[in-house]
Specification:
Blueprint (H helix, E strand, L loop, with lengths): L12 H6 L6 H31 L4 H25 L2 H22 L7 H29 L2 H63 L14 H8 L1 H31 L3 H34 L1 H21 L3 H25 L6 H32 L4 H7 L1 H26 L1
């Protein structure tokens, strides 16, 4: 890859705004579009997941457990694919695998008339699908962009996903009245198919940079990704960051599902409510990704940028502990998810640009799937335990405030280690 110049030297307003150099545009445009269709397809489906969660709010902790079990089964399969096949082979195969499943769900889904077991299977499937395909996407990005480029461009690439996610809920809301969940799933399948074609195109573009040499098979053990996590202080801090974030996000997701089940009735009405929430999240996340995050990392550095997120959320949890209601709770969840997609997401993906390829694919996927869903399970059972003990949602919010302090400490240490590793990678 050609060495990028200082983005401040460009006289082009758009290039200064996006912080991109002339030679980076083709790959950046494809990556932006790829993530647009990938997240667009997922966010067409996400309101269906929210409606299923509201329909099954009393057993969400079991759905999280089922998702975690499914992740544990699929991680070694992914490790096998990465070890035996080139990037250009296993990435499209994974997407086509999930698209074929989605088409099957579309055939059998019937809104409120859908059997409970099928709704719950869809919930688990979509939870696995989301983390898995997005993790593969960002492993791919970390593989083809250098650390300096990632710091400038990952926010913009993630903004492509946010644009898709902003548009997607409107598509879902327009399809549901006439075509129901089946129409949403078929439309999402086409979006994901376009993402797959763009993944293939981007792989060919990256191959040209290597003078048409095929990507090397990563090789190694199927379990090497997990083993590396437990041998690395850096990766362990990344796991801690994910655990503490998920303790927060799972409480907000479960709490909102409970409040929606109490205040809103009907599968379609709940789907439309979650569509509104998702749309608000993605508009705010887009502003962070496009205009704010890369500049914060540049001017504040990674440690301070990572610490900002739990600091802001601590204020939100104090507000929830003092006052409670569906709209206020939804607003705090919107803030949490906006910061997740807009700031934590891009910075988290930057963290993996300073490690080797096996870590980028295997360890990153293990963290993004098994560790992520494992922390979800932990968080959901904690929520269930606290509510079973008689605590109200407002009281539980106070319990989570100290979690923000631990999160801030872990974020600071992770940012410091990243800064040292980036300096060595650039040197």
């Amino acid at each position: 890859m050609p060495q990028a110049a200082n983005p401040g030297q460009s006289n082009n307003f758009l290039e200064r705004l996006v912080q991109v150099e002339h030679g980076e545009w083709p790959r950046l445009a494809i990556a932006f579009s790829y993530f647009f269709f990938l997240l667009g397809g997922y966010f067409m489906l996400r309101p269906l997941r929210g409606a299923v969660a509201a329909n099954n709010s009393e057993i969400l902790h079991w759905l999280y457990t089922g998702t975690f079990a499914a992740m544990l089964l699929i991680v070694p399969v992914f490790g096998f694919l990465v070890s035996r096949f080139r990037r250009g082979q296993f990435i499209p195969a994974i997407y086509l695998f999930f698209i074929s499943h989605l088409v099957l769900f579309a055939v059998f889904f019937e809104g409120d008339a859908t059997p409970s077991w099928l709704q719950r299977t869809f919930y688990i499937w979509l939870s696995v699908f989301n983390l898995f395909v997005v993790s593969v996407f960002w492993s791919f990005m970390a593989d083809i962009f250098r650390p300096g480029q990632a710091q400038r461009l990952f926010g913009f690439i993630m903004a492509g996903g946010s644009v898709g996610a902003i548009i997607a809920p409107s598509i879902t809301k327009s399809i549901v009245p006439a075509w129901g969940a089946t129409g949403v799933m078929i439309t999402a399948s086409f979006s994901l198919l376009l993402a797959t074609l763009l993944a293939i195109l981007l792989g060919r573009f990256a191959r040209k940079d290597r003078e048409n040499k095929p990507t090397e098979v990563i090789g190694g053990s199927v379990w090497e990704g997990a083993a590396r996590v437990f041998r690395s202080e850096y990766l362990l801090y990344a796991c801690l960051l994910m655990l503490l974030h998920n303790l927060t996000s799972t409480f907000l997701f479960n709490g909102l599902a409970v409040l929606v089940s109490e205040h809103i009735t009907g599968f379609d009405e709940r789907t439309r409510f979650f569509s509104h929430v998702d749309q608000a999240v993605q508009i705010l996340a887009f502003l962070f990704q496009f205009l704010i995050t890369a500049r914060l990392v540049r001017y504040l550095g990674m440690p301070k940028t990572l610490v900002l997120i739990p600091t802001v959320l601590a204020g939100g949890f104090i507000i929830l502990g003092s006052s409670m209601g569906l709209v206020l709770f939804a607003a705090v969840q919107v803030a949490q998810r906006s910061l997740n997609y807009g700031m934590l997401g891009p910075t988290k993906e930057m963290l993996f640009t300073v490690v080797d390829r096996e870590t980028k694919y295997k360890s990153k996927n293990f963290i993004d799937t098994a560790v992520y869903r494992g922390s979800d399970v932990t968080a959901s059972w904690i929520f269930k335990g606290l509510t079973s003990a008689g605590l109200s949602i407002a009281q539980i919010a106070w319990v989570y405030v100290p979690v923000m302090g631990l999160w801030a400490f872990g974020a600071w240490r992770l940012g410091q280690i990243y800064t040292r590793m980036k300096a060595k990678a650039v040197a």
